[in-house]
Amino acid sequence: MIILSYKNVFINSHLIIKMQHKITFLALSNILKAVEGGSTFGSIELESQIVLKFIAANEQAGIELCVTDITNNNSIPGAAATKLKRVHRLRDEGWLEFSTSTQHHRRLRIVLSQKSKDEMSQMSEVLNLQLRSILS
Hints:
3-stranded antiparallel beta sheet; disordered N terminus; alpha+beta
């Protein structure tokens, strides 16, 4: 049986029960680091990765973000001015795009660029392959 565990939380699945492996949180973390490290995404600083992952998660949930959602977020490391510089640098490097918000004409909407989406999609494919090879 495969047990995906993290701080006493165990997730079992009908598909996974047939397999005879145990994947620890540390093993999954190492796999993810290797996948990220083998991509362009892995070459950017950790704080910028956190910003990109935060934006990606919100985009997946259908939540529109603006610059102040990043600068005022205490779960993203750094002072507001530092986060603002980071967001602008990520835009200048092609990871983010700004557009006018659908909620208000003065809001500056932040979205992942096609470069970010392609990179995250490629990392997801590599991660899927890695996990399939471990679980089979």
